[in-house]
Amino acid sequence: MTVQPQFTQAQPVNLKKPPIVLRFSGLWPHTLRRFRFHDERRGGDLGHVDLGRTTANEILVGDENWDQVIRDEIAQMKQHNFEQHLEALQEKSRKSEARRVEEAGPVNPWRASKEGPLREGILTVNKDWFGGSGQAQWDPERVEEFKRTALEFLRRSFPDGQLRYASMHMDEEALHIHFVVAVWVEKTSANRGHQILLQPSENPLLKNYERAQDMAGAAFAKIGITRGERRAEARRQARAEGKPLPAKKEHVAPSQWRAEERRRAQKEKKRILYAAEATAKVAVEDGRDLAKATVKKSRKRAIKEAQARKRRAAKETAEATRRRDAAEEKAQQFEKAAAAASSTKKRIEAEIGSLKPIVQGYEERAEAAAEKFRQKRDARKLEEENTARISREKEDMEGALPALQQREADLHEQVQSLAQHRANEEAAGMAAQSARRIEEKKLAEAAKRVQLKVAEAEAISEAMEVGLELVADGALVWQDAMPGSKPKLSWGPSAPVDEHGRAEKLKEIRPARRLVARIARLVAQTVKRVLAKERQKLQDDAEYVRGLREQWEPEAQARLAQISRDPDGGRL
């Protein structure tokens, strides 16, 4: 099913009695094929068509070959008018003019115009009158009423075979009827003789479109559909009263409107694409510059912070080393003092031991010994205090060493973080370059596919040209089905004799062989139809001559019998 636009959100047309839409447009005989091609949904603009409902379309008037019948009539009338024109000029002894007409050959059986000798028309009404957008929402009774009323109006308005074709389309948003009109008139004059011409203006509706609108409004009024606005009458009245003329509305065909919308959409698409590309390019350049500046600033800031941390760490390390050296020096001094005190203690003890017998007898020596003892006690106490202080300082130094080690570990982690940050920035740059290379590769592949499609179209075009030349020369012909075989494309009398030449021709038309076969089949059918008509004409002439012969033979035999009985009776 073709995707088509839906107008479900559009504002409804609030019309109690919607107007009938009747439009005419010119049509040329050579465009009948295009009309039929689109009418049968075999090509053209199908974006608005629901191909799933095309089978519901109905042919109301006309047989299968209605367009060919019109072209055959035109060819016959063209030859008839030519012969009548020559005969009329010869009867008036206008020989030079007759020679010019004969040299010019037959001319088209219609007067020169810009619209064409045929007329295509359309009958429809607003889709809301049927029930909504699309066949699924239509009221079947209203569809049947519209169809019946339209057929009555068309047959009454275009009598005597003027209405050649009418079809009802059910696969679009609103039901509508297309029809084709051919108006033949006979005219006789002394200079041209009996002429049969296509002249649409001989029909009152085609001569005056306002009258056509009036008649259409009267015909459809019985089912609740009125005539459209009288814009032309309003313009005439305004012109007569000297008032400003109402704006003249120009009808735009749906196909033209859709083509214009597609053109605008493509233009807008290109504009948005170019703007996006330009914006992306600017953003990429700005991002690249910003990334470079950010990396540069980050590198400078990281180096500066690392240097500052290094200086602080070196300063703290030097301070800790100084304090450690001072503590070690003090510890050595205390150890020396303790060693000296211990040596003194030992020496005093030795002296006391040696002098003890003497001190016992002498009070003064006892007092000296006591004083020395007190001094010894004070020295021991001082030694203990010094030992405790040295222990405390050692503990403080041992507590400062882990802090220093932790500071060194933090510095190491910051250096590693800086290295990881640099690695991430380099990875981001490599990812951007990889994405840009992937995008460029995709664009190159898309361009390559477009080139392949163009080359394929050119090959098909060249193959079609060669195939048409072979069909025109009679080298390829369409062979109808024989008993036990299928119809096929075969070689004709002017085909290449050798197998190599035939193989080369088949190789040249291979890309378009199906299209060539279809064209050959159409040519064969056309020739067959023309030959059948000629054979029928020859058969009719033979029957006519045979009838004359049968009519004359009795009279001739009776005359001969009378002459044989009376030789003088036949003399004048």
Walkthrough of the structure:
- It is a single chain.
- This protein has 572 residues and is α+β, with helices and mostly antiparallel strands.
- It is 65% helix and 9% strand.
- It has 12 helices and 9 strands.
- Strands 1-3-5-4-2 form a 5-stranded antiparallel sheet, with helices on both faces. The chain has a two-stranded antiparallel sheet with strand order 6-7.
- α5 (140-157) packs across α7 (209-220) and α9 packs antiparallel against α10.
- The longest helix is centred in the C-terminal third of the chain and has 111 residues, at 363-473.
- The protein is elongated and about 225 Å long.
- The two termini are 87 Å apart.
- Residues 1-15 have low confidence and may be disordered.
Radius of gyration: 57 Å
Give the helix level as a range of percent: 55-70%
The number of distinct helices, counting runs of at least 4 residues, comes to: 12
Low-confidence stretches: 1-15
Order of helices and strands: EHEHHEHHEEEEHHHHHEEHH
Work out the strand percent: 5-15%
Q: Order of strands in the sheet with the most strands? A: 1-3-5-4-2
- Tell me about the largest β-sheet: 5 strands, antiparallel
Globally, the shape reads elongated
Question: Can you give the mean pLDDT?
Answer: 75
Structural class by secondary-structure content: alpha+beta
User: What is the rounded distance between the termini?
Assistant: 87 Å
Report the strand count: 9
